[in-house]
Design goal:
45% helix, 269 residues, alpha/beta, 10 helices, five-stranded parallel β-sheet, Serine acetyltransferase, six-stranded mixed β-sheet
């Protein structure tokens, strides 16, 4: 048994670490034993655990847990990248969110992480032509988590959405890898135009709370968008923009602002 556990840990260190934390959490707080066993320890893999959480959270009188569970299991089986992206997201939240001290926290408690994982299943449905069902997932994610990500949007891996309330990401938006954003961020359009109308966010970008990025514009890799900014024009890579409307106020201040989460501009100015 010990050798089996060691091999599992080598193959999937994230899931192995979550299970170790889960067993410790049950010992520390027995009242959470039922939640932790049903959500984590009962399952053989992270994908199965996430499928269970997806079905539990999004079920309603309109769609049963059983049907949603079958949809999620099908998605994870058909596209292994969904599960790998979830692992990158867990590590991203653990590394960047000072409130996250264990890998199990995003899976059980953090609505930003959970909303993104539900979006990933909705996006798979969208790509496979099951668009009405994808819209249903989008609707339920918005109702349950307060996060509205269109299933047609493209979102990379290693995503950290802190607090997550009132996040809006439009249909033709693209979000690169290792992006961090805080609550009330909007990646939106500017009117009634159709077609490609939403922002393209590069890799490693940090987007502050309440920032609005509008239109089919590019935000360059490793840039910072200050909290409360309204961005209407292209943002060069490795720069910081701030204001309404936003303008360049300096360099990004570090190579990977999304990883450091440093939002201070010129010593607080």
């Amino acid at each position: 048994m010990a050798e089996t556990k060691r091999k599992v840990a080598q193959v999937d260190p994230v899931w192995s670490h979550i299970c170790e934390e889960a067993r410790a959490a049950v010992r520390d707080e027995p009242l959470l034993g039922g939640l932790i066993h049903s959500s984590l320890l009962h399952h053989p893999s992270l994908e199965r655990a996430l499928a269970y959480r997806f079905s539990l959270k999004l079920a309603s009188g309109e769609m049963s847990e059983q049907i949603l569970r079958e949809i999620a299991d099908e998605a994870y089986a058909a596209d292994p990248e969904i599960g790998q992206s979830a692992r990158a997201d867990i590590v991203a939240v653990y590394d960047r969110d000072p409130a996250c001290h264990r890998f199990l926290q995003p899976v059980l408690f953090f609505k930003g992480f959970q909303a993104v994982q539900c979006y990933r299943i909705g996006h798979w449905l969208w790509q496979t032509g099951r668009r009405d069902l994808a819209y249903f997932v989008q609707m339920r994610v918005s109702e349950v988590f307060g996060v509205d990500i269109h299933p047609g949007a493209i979102v990379g891996k290693g995503i950290m959405i802190d607090h997550a309330h009132s996040i809006v990401i439009g249909e033709t938006a693209v979000v690169g890898d290792n992006v961090s954003m805080l609550h009330s961020v909007t990646l939106g359009g500017t009117g009634k135009e159709d077609g490609d109308r939403h922002p393209k966010i590069g890799n490693g970008v940090l987007i502050g709370a309440g920032a609005k990025i509008l239109g089919n514009i590019r935000v360059g890799d490793c840039s910072r968008i200050a909290a409360g900014s309204v961005v209407l024009h292209e943002v060069p890579k490795c720069t910081t923009v701030a204001g309404v409307p936003a303008r360049v106020v300096g360099e990004a201040g570090c190579e990977q602002p999304a990883l450091t989460m440093d939002q201070i501009i010129d010593g607080g100015v």
